[in-house]
Design a protein that fits this description.
The chain has 184 residues and is α+β, with helices and mostly antiparallel strands. The chain contains five helices and eight strands. The chain has a domain of 126 residues: 2-Layer Sandwich (Alpha-D-Glucose-1,6-Bisphosphate, Chain A, domain 4). Strands 1-2-8-7-6-5-4-3 form an eight-stranded antiparallel beta sheet, with helices on one face.
């Protein structure tokens, strides 16, 4: 199985713009003003085609407490209020990613279509958006992350591609799980 990834990294002060880096689908993401990609200090865009319907992808994505079982970028995920480990509108979840502990709050929740959360620490603030776009073969899954804060400087210098690569892994694992459910 060959997975096709589309990705871009937007660094403030470069000539790369969010519009040049991705498809028009990315423009459908509802960015809070502080996290608009062209204004953020660090931005990553990833997407993948999945041969499964949006409902299956959504179900996999919502089961947040199971992410660590199949995605190496998430550890110690706990969803609150207690919900059998499944994200819901207004959920808050704690987790460890990129070596840091975060508390993330769901900001947008449109079943089978959109999910966004905000994570804040003194050193870094991030907004992570998911967009699931139906296609003739299943769906396209887009995940974008916009970050601000002084820690983004070190991320750009020392770990420029780490987040992009982790998101590629996340998308590929979602693709595998979703397509396996369809094949049953």
């Amino acid at each position: 199985m060959v997975a096709k990834f589309t990705w871009a990294i937007l660094l403030v002060g470069t000539s790369l713009s969010a519009q040049q880096s991705s498809s028009s689908d990315m423009e459908k993401i509802n960015w809070p003003p502080a996290y608009e990609p062209s204004k953020s200090k660090f931005f990553v865009h990833n997407e993948i085609e999945v041969n499964a319907p949006p409902q299956i992808v959504w179900e996999i994505l919502m089961a947040a407490e199971s992410w660590p079982e199949w995605y190496k970028g998430a550890q110690n995920v706990v969803v609150r209020p207690a919900s059998n480990g499944v994200l819901k509108e207004n959920s808050v979840f704690t987790w460890k990613t990129m070596g840091l502990d975060f508390e993330s709050t769901i900001k947008e929740f449109v079943p089978y279509s959109r999910l966004s959360w905000e994570s804040k620490k003194k050193s870094i603030q991030g907004y992570h958006a998911w967009l699931i776009v139906p296609t003739a073969q299943g769906c396209k899954v887009i995940t974008d992350e916009s970050q601000n804060g002084w820690l983004t400087f070190f991320e750009k210098i020392f770990q420029r591609n780490k987040l992009r690569k982790l998101h590629d892994v996340w998308l590929l694992e979602i693709k595998k799980k979703a397509e396996a459910k369809v094949a049953r």
